[in-house]
Specification:
The chain is of the alpha/beta class. Helix content is about 35%, strand content about 15%. The longest helix has 17 residues.
Length: about 450
Amino acid sequence: MSMQNDKQFGFEANFDGLVGPTHHYGGHSFGNVASTGNAKLVANPREAALQGLAKMKALADMGYRQGVLPPQERPATWVMRELGYTGSDHELIAAVGNTNLGYLSAMCSASSMWTANAATVSPSGDTADGRVHFSVANLQNKFHRAIEHRQTERTLKAIFSNEQYFSVHGALPMMAAFGDEGAANHTRFCKDYAGQGVEFFVYGRQHWGGTVEPQRFPARHTLEASQAVARRHGLRASHTVYAQQNPAVIDAGVFHNDVIAVGNQNVLFCHDQAFLNAQQVYAELKQKVGANFELIEVPSSAVSVEDAVKSYLFNSQLLAKTNGKQRLLVPEECANTPAVWAYLQHLIHDNRAIDELLVFDLKQSMQNGGGPACLRLRVALSEGEAAAVNPAVWMNDQLYADLTSWVKRHYRDRLHENDLLDPHLLDEVRGALDELTHILHLGSIYPFQRHGSDE
């Protein structure tokens, strides 16, 4: 169990997903407007990975703790075998691709880059046993993501392996009643990162209870999933809040809560259409977080839901500063959306809790439907807990140089759905990932390193 005297030295680390070599625009995520709207375009995996690394390095240089989560092995040949395809790995790929190229595309998706969906994390200050708990998300709503959870569990256990400090839970049952999309629908409010916080779970629908649901796009996350995670992690009811997403904004393309709201420490930055029964949600948050809870609610008159989705204004990162205020890290698309940019200038000049903007080029990720917040998993740690993390995954000058060189040597600068049939791609990916496991000291975590097994 982690030692209580470690907890006074708390901080929040971001673990960003390293974009994988098969990054392409497959358009698999129904309900994600950017994903489906850019399907079949030509992607640049090398540029995507370098853009993500540049963000990680910039935050590390600012003094934030920044970790790296590796991509998953794709194409997912073990899934092809589970579905009845036979032959060598290269024959499997040809058989699947020649039957249905979209099917192959789903099994080549690099969607694990969006590590906000990897798991839900409860820091030790919140949990019954005083350890940091991770619950791997099942992502059962989308086939290309539902095949991620076993690798995600292995990866997290390779990085957070010390059971004195960490507990990594597998995915919830793979069924609609427990649809779990991870930290994209979860945030945490606190005075300091190592102390007791308030965990905020947002769901799209209630499986047993007959709540109102969206009509156009699916509500991927259930109340029942959030409640199960809270039980697993040993959270206190007095420090837990559940809220339902507004079904109308899900139908407008807000497939996860982190497309319409973001919170950090005592601040909630959200759109006024984000939640069903919003005033009740705000009242409960204020009561449980305390009098210093600060709501920054963006009115529809200033920023429409359509512009929020197009720009990913809320799929941003709130980063604590030493002056007690916060930085807001946004994608370039915010600067290119006039109403959003005008609002942000007003926000910064208003000198509220957010007093600084950081703008990053993440176009390769954005065109596939994921912004700055999608790319990172937030993990609040004490210094003692941080010392128990696999040290090879912390971003620094040397790791940045090593990973930049690795990407430039192994990644293509052009990838279209048709290129997934290239038999050389599988060999390129496996060669790259084998080298990466040595760089990050992960051991044999991938199926091809485990005799083709994903167990």
